[in-house]
Design goal:
The structure is a homodimer of 487-residue chains.
Chain A: H1 17-37, H2 51-55, H3 67-78, H4 100-112, H5 123-139, E1 154-158, H6 161-175, E2 181-187, H7 192-200, E3 208-211, E4 213-214, E5 220-221, H8 223-235, E6 238-246, H9 258-268, E7 271-275, E8 300-303, H10 305-308, E9 316-320, H11 323-330, H12 340-344, H13 363-398, E10 402-404, E11 412-417, H14 421-433, E12 440-445, E13 451-458, H15 466-486
Parallel strand pairs in A: 2-3, 2-6, 6-7, 7-8
Antiparallel strand pairs in A: 1-9, 4-5, 8-9, 10-11, 11-13, 12-13
Chain lengths: 487, 487
């Protein structure tokens, strides 16, 4: 009945089991070596733009190359030209943690190669994610209404907080039924991804009202200014459909008042999104939950375990209190995605909770991390970093060449040399030139409205210990002396 | 100078090198076992909604669990409840290939844990991606103007084709300067992600004009209808800012004419985006490049190596001829992202080419796959699947109980039982119930406008060989007899 098939096209050679096993083991060892030796490497590579491009062939190879060549090129070309985000001397931006169980989760996810767009396209992918987001929600003290177990709310893994904000924004727009010209509100300290999401979703720059933060209130959004602005806008027939509260801003870790913003949002019918991308990880420790006091008033909440909870990028967690708004905004079902489970109802199809259609099995790494460390281990991890930052803050305070730009937020300390910005700029350049540490900068207005450049010390790499922070402080003191003597 | 730090908070225990090494090796073995045994597993698991949820604890563990427990739960709870996308009997949707070198790339990317948002945050991450997109562009025959080497165009890795479409859409909107009410145009066979992107970017459902496809032209968009519609719209003062050509639609693999749509786009000033998510992989074979004849007229082009080019999800490749429009649409630079390299110019910051800010090191897996297989190996892989599909198509044609719904497109064959839809629906249910194969369905209107339900046979899993396709055909024949006898 079935005729023999022709074999004019020979299938390509795949790696054998033994080759894959060998290469996998070598990479595990390479990663172990990298993690062990990372302290000896300059945190930031000194490479010129274009140097890797020049070292790579202009055209792809026609015939297969040997794995040995490929692997040795990793060591020769790639390792010297990456920024070592996992270095214990990395204090820049916010951390982007890796850990062994998370790496194993990524490995397994890649090996299984399943697509979780629908419940039916891989049930375990969806259900493990539901349970992990409920676990995580419980760990950070979210009300039950945010949980899948509520049947109404629920959490979902996004790639980044930028995507989470965009999802919240389109859900908010979809929920808004009042007419009027749409306006969104956020602190002038909100992350740039809010402005980016505003653009993507088709609103104009002016449709995002940036409410002044208060230098005398640690750069929290001035809730009174928000309320006033919304009153004026509403009087003008404008539709305040979206408010973003930032809990732990990127520049200084400022904490907008969720309770106040929630009150205002409820008054005017706006959606309240809480962006706690960095600070959210600290909520695993009950002593930090005051940061989100009033969270029951939020419609959505996001934080990034991929920043500071030992879970490799990408894994941003977004919860909503009412999933219907997200589904209304994002659900489109063509014939080719119809399936019995969806039609019967009672299953969650996460493609309707996100921008893309496809999704990989990211809940595995969260499962492994939470079980491998336990809640207690994750709490200890966070507390240790906060303690290191607290100690660092004290050193800064005790040295009167420096000033704190804002009170420490968790593991973030913002400081500058008193006086002209140029000194602090020079200090940062000198510090990063040592290769032993890497820090980044930002700028905020002081009480007089003058922009002040400062250095951010963001503690949170997986392997950062007390002696790394001590070493950073020694370097800061040494380079400060050089700056001040030179100046 | 530095006082000793208190140690009241003990850092958590991380896996030791030996533990990680052991666990990594076990997972590599688990993946090898999985790939080897996958043929014996039902392609689609038979699990009830909620069964994994019930098997998982409601709350996270307070204390660390042993890796043995975690690992054995993977085998006990996860493996039986995933859809086996890597099974050689998986013919549903479109493929989502995994391969050993791609898995190794994901592993390494996770282990290095770098962030590629800016050139300066990990130079190798950006430059390897630039070179890989130039390699890939050359492999599929894109004009040089799409390459980074042109200094004007260039390619970028996106998570999915959905995101690529959204990026193209916002770039198109940003480029449009003519005023008027914005309208986008796509085939009624275009992927649902186009409609989703339209919603996300704030346009209304009616702002996407779905142009009729032609059943007598293999469901390609009727270019004359597009031209006519745009003429009418322009006469009404409407702004045709975006046209999407689909090369290889999801339902039947229809090929819109890039040359014709490009001509129309140039006439009216619209952006032409080419979505070749599935079919694009076949362009590595020169004999298939006629599919994108006229590509020099496109502003952007996307395909998914994560579908059919042995590169694990997620890796969607997007090229533009003029990067300036993407940058104008998406670039926002707050103080905390400013850096010397960006300010000096001459570097690419890929965060401005995508929706999110953060990005992981996905170019590694592409580099490994291209080098491990060589261009010749990837060509052989594609040609082998197309040959299998061609054989399958012939069997369908020779059996007059069946009809082809459209001519085969590459490795996709769309067929149905002649007569009522219910027979075909029953056949699909019976086939999938065998557990030996998994296929999915779609529906298109026939020449009379009646919707016809059909089965899609999408060949492309990494390990699909001739005997798997033969076995699928045998099952189809057996179950067809049962359906027809029963009916």
């Amino acid at each position: 009945m079935v005729s023999a098939m022709s074999e004019s096209q020979v299938a390509p050679e795949h790696m054998t089991r033994e080759e894959f096993r060998q290469a996998g083991l070598e990479f595990i060892d390479l990663i172990c070596d990298y993690w062990e030796d990372i302290e000896e490497l300059p945190v930031n590579p000194s490479v010129d733009p274009g140097s890797l491009l020049e070292a790579l062939p202009e055209s792809p190879p026609q015939e297969p190359e040997s794995w040995d060549d490929i692997q040795s090129d990793v060591r020769r070309l790639i390792l010297p030209a990456i920024t070592n985000w996992q270095s214990p001397g990395f204090f820049g931006y916010f951390p982007a943690n890796a850990s062994a169980p998370a790496v194993l989760g990524e490995l397994l996810s890649a090996g299984l190669g399943v697509q979780g767009m629908l419940w039916s396209t891989s049930p375990a992918c969806t259900e493990l994610e539901m349970r992990m987001l409920d676990w995580l929600g419980e760990m950070i003290g979210l009300p039950d209404t945010f949980m899948h177990s509520s049947g109404v709310g629920g959490g979902v893994i996004q790639g980044t907080a930028s995507e989470a904000s965009l999802v919240a924004l389109v859900a908010a727009r979809s929920r808004w039924s009042g007419g009027g010209e749409l306006k969104a509100y956020a602190s002038d300290q909100a992350h740039s991804s809010i402005a980016k999401a505003i653009r993507i979703c088709g609103l104009q720059e002016d449709d995002l009202r940036l409410i002044k933060s208060d230098p005398d209130d640690a750069y929290a959004m001035q809730s009174e200014a928000l309320e006033e602005r919304i009153k004026l806008d509403v009087a003008d027939g404008v539709a305040p459909f979206f408010i973003c509260a930032t809990v732990g801003t990127t520049s200084t870790g400022a904490l907008d008042s969720v309770r106040e913003l929630g009150r205002i949002a409820r008054q005017c019918g706006a959606w309240l999104h809480v962006d706690a991308a960095y600070a959210g990880s600290a909520l695993v420790c009950p002593e930090h939950r005051a940061m989100i006091d009033g969270i029951e008033r939020a419609d959505s909440f996001c934080f990034n375990p991929h920043k500071w909870l030992l879970t490799n990028f990408d894994l941003s967690a977004l919860w909503v209190q009412d999933r219907a708004h997200v589904l209304n905004a994002l659900s489109i079902t063509p014939e080719y995605l119809k399936n019995t489970a969806t039609e019967r109802g009672g299953v969650v199809d996460f493609r309707d909770w996100q921008i893309p259609l496809g999704r990989r099995f990211r809940a595995l790494k969260l499962w492994f991390v939470i079980r491998q460390y336990g809640v207690a281990g994750l709490q200890a991890y966070i507390r240790r970093h906060i303690e290191l930052a607290s100690q660092f803050e004290q050193w800064v305070e005790e040295d009167d060449r420096f000033e704190l730009v804002a009170p420490r937020c968790l593991s973030l300390v913002c400081f500058r040399l008193r006086g002209d910005d140029d000194r602090t700029r020079e200090l940062l350049e000198r510090l990063n030139a040592t290769g032993e540490v890497f820090l980044t900068h930002s700028a905020v207005p002081d009480s007089t409205g003058t922009m002040r450049y400062f250095i951010r010390m963001a503690i949170g790499a997986t392997k950062t210990e007390d002696h790394h922070v001590q070493r950073a402080w020694s370097l800061i003191q040494r380079e400060t002396s050089a700056v001040l003597d030179g100046g």
